Amino acid sequence: MSIIIGIDHGYYAIKTAHCSFPAGLTSYGEHEPYTRQGLLEFGGCFFVCGSGRQPIQRDKTANDNYYLLTLAAIAKELEQYRLFTASLCLSVGLPLSWVGSQRESFRQYLMQNETIRFRFNGNLFQLRIVGCKVYPQGYAAIVQQLADFEGEHLLADIGNGTMNLLYLTDSQPQESRCWTEKIGVNQCMIRAKEAVLRRFGSKISDSTVEQILRTGTAKIDADYLACIREVASGYVAELFAALRSYEYDPATTHLTIVGGGGQLVKHFGSYDPEQVTIVDDICAAAKGYEYMAYRQMLRG
């Protein structure tokens, strides 16, 4: 029997049902680095997974990065069960409006090797990939709660690189009303760093800005904090303006936000909490992929 592993391939982070790590990848070629943390050995080469992030790219199959990060994600998930030999079915996602055109190429990309042998964090994995399911990424995050989606709903999946929108009517997805916008959280990050540089003439680290966007605050100078909060508030206002351009009306439509952008809205937005739901679980999409794959296998 094969094991289903759901993986959410974000630009900022890779998530499984139980793990999350930054989507960065550093190649060391044939030279083994000193660090063992996040160390992947595959095909005679060494890679360190988990620092930095991936560039925004429409086609995730353009290079080997997401394949290698997939191996790291599988290893992290299996390590929890001390399982190093297994047959797997991968369950993954793509932005709503890209699924139709990229589903098959992404599936073939992730299944390029049926049998895989690699080391991660010093552990040897010997795996067989027997299948790969590709689903809409935003929809997967709420699929287990569909019974609650009565009336008109707008699902906004706000990630690091894109915002994906989907309308649902009485729990039914309206496939003709889905869009992908390049207005992800990374744009807010860039603007915040530029604002600090212009106003104070100094640079601020990505990690500090990320903490403020994620939690609403950080232990830094009050003027710096106010500057970043001002940028974040303006960015969230732009998000809601974009939603309105796609006919979002808070008086008649319940808004559900998934992805990292939900924390921005929570800390810097102005909204009616009765009409807006923010899903805090960053692993919700990966869990949804597994749920959808299990249901499909049971039906089959």
Structure notes:
Helices cover 35% and strands 29% of the residues. It starts with a strand and ends with a helix. The radius of gyration is 20 Å and the shape is globular.
| Mean pLDDT level | 93
Briefly note the structural class of the backbone.
alpha/beta
C-alpha Rg, in Å?
20 Å
**How many beta-strand elements?**
15
Approximately how much helix is present in the residues?
25-40%
Count every helix, treating DSSP H or I runs of 4 or more residues as helices: 8
Shape: globular
Reported for the largest beta sheet, the result is: 7 strands, mixed
Strand arrangement, major sheet: 1-8-10-9-6-7-5
Beta percentage is: 25-35%
* Gap between N and C termini: 14 Å
Q: Are there runs of 5+ residues with pLDDT below 50, and where?
A: none
Topology pattern, helix = H, strand = E? EEEEEEEHEHEEHEEEHHHEHEH
Brief summary of the model shown:
The protein has 300 residues and is an alpha/beta fold.
